[in-house]
Description:
The complex is a heterodimer of chains A (123) and B (250). In chain A, strands 1-2-3-5-4 form a 5-stranded antiparallel beta sheet, with helices on one face. Chain A has 3 helices and 5 strands, in the order E-H-H-E-E-H-E-E. Helix content of chain A is 37%, strand content 28%. Among the domains of chain B are: 2-94, Four Helix Bundle (Hemerythrin (Met), subunit A); 178-245, Winged helix-like DNA-binding domain superfamily/Winged helix DNA-binding domain (Arc Repressor Mutant, subunit A), CATH 1.10.10.10. The radius of gyration of chain B is 26 Å and the shape is elongated.
Amino acid sequence: MVPARPEFLRLARVTAAGLAGRLGFSYDEIEDLRLAIDELCFGLTGPTGRHGTVELVYTVGASSLEVAGQGRFLEDIIPIGLTDLSRVILSALVDEHQLTSGPEGPRFRLVKRRHSDAPVSGD
Amino acid sequence: MATDRESLKATFVEFARTRDVALRDQLVGAHMGLAAYLARRFANRGQPLEDLTQVAALGLLKAVERFDPSLNIEFSTYATTTIVGELKRYLRDKGWAVRAPRRMQELYLSLSRVVDALGQELGRSPTIAELAAEIEASEEDVLEALEAGQAYRFASLDAPRGDGEGDSVGESMGAEDEELARAEQRAILTPMLDQLPLRQRQIVHLRFFEGLTQSEIARRLGISQMQVSRLLTRSVAQMRAVANPTAEDG
């Protein structure tokens, strides 16, 4: 759970890249992941952040990574949705993506699967 | 010491009365140590100490000019607030455009050479582990360096367009523009794409419409993958700015 500000959401990117690296994602795939997280975080908090928090949940699969973010903001915000631009970008970058308004606040979710045939590092 | 303080106090009173620039400079000079001390406390946040010291000195100058010696507060207390305020504002304005530590900059540069070479050797995009082995760094360092590269990207977002980014590979790509006519996406993106320099338009098109990977785009355009990555990130941010013109007041 981090403050809903760009400098903290940078951590979302770093963490995702770290996990993806461990899963043997290729450099290409990790770059895609970074851009996708940027895009969804932007959708959630805008360029300057919001008052409130974002709870991030990372789910590691055998060859996939899911990142979910639940925003809880103090201010009322205009219903959140993806712009057409974001949709085009995200569908090129990740396998699944969503940005929706939930009862607690807006949330996003993305799934990136490993497609490369590189060896998986680590144990 | 007490006499020093007394004489400084007298100088402040004198300056308040006369607004004599020589007195002002004398007062600034007498407190430069405070400014330098505060600047050092804000070091290690990505900005060079010299710059911070200048900002602090400017804050000090403002403090000297605004200080009212008839109020019963110490100048150092008053000045600290002003100087810290200036430093914070400066760092905030710099925002994301922080400079990465030198070691990370160097790692990033090594990586930019290795990503393409290794990719060609392997016939696929390398993994982080492979990159780390190649430049003899830890995987964490590789990830951190790539993130540092991200910081440069954000640094360039202030200049959204017309930055002269290459038309050099332009001619060979002319024919591809026909294919851009996938009606739906074109309708959405054309106004935003139009804002981008030619090379960025090509990269956005190849990545998001043609589905090429960054390394494939790099090969096709004859530039490095790091360049593709940076131009792509910049393009997305620029298109976003066009799509959300009022987003800044959020």
